[in-house]
Amino acid sequence: MFVFPKGLVHFQYNAGTSYAIALSAFGSASAGTVSLPGTLFATGIDDAVLAKSFKTDVGVIQKLKAGLAVKP
């Protein structure tokens, strides 16, 4: 069983060799929303970790981050 606080971005990975089944539920009728671009790409998460998570390369991650950068 996994419990995630409201608004926390998360993922799960099946490291096994057989299928995994997931059942999810919200703890309230108003689960809220999270802006994933800012939550993922405007943080200190290492580019290599993001690249592996999204099955892409570091160059793509850097382009995404550059597109989300606050312009002066």
Q: How does this structure look, described?
A:
By secondary structure, this protein is mainly α. It contains 3 helices and no strands. It is flat. The protein starts with 35 loop residues before the first helix and ends with a helix. The relative contact order is 0.13. The model has no long low-confidence stretch (mean pLDDT 80).
Termini distance? 44 Å
Poorly predicted spans: none
What is the 3D shape? flat
| Count of helical regions | 3
H-E string = HHH
Oligomer: single chain
Mean pLDDT value: 80
- Helix-strand makeup class: mainly alpha
Number of DSSP strand runs: 0
Helix content: 25-40%
Radius of gyration: 15 Å
> Hey, roughly how much beta strand do the residues contain?
under 5%
Largest sheet: none
InterPro entries: Cupin_1, RmlC-like_jellyroll, RmlC_Cupin_sf
Domain Cupin type-1: 1-58
Organism: Linum tenue
Protein name: Cupin type-1 domain-containing protein
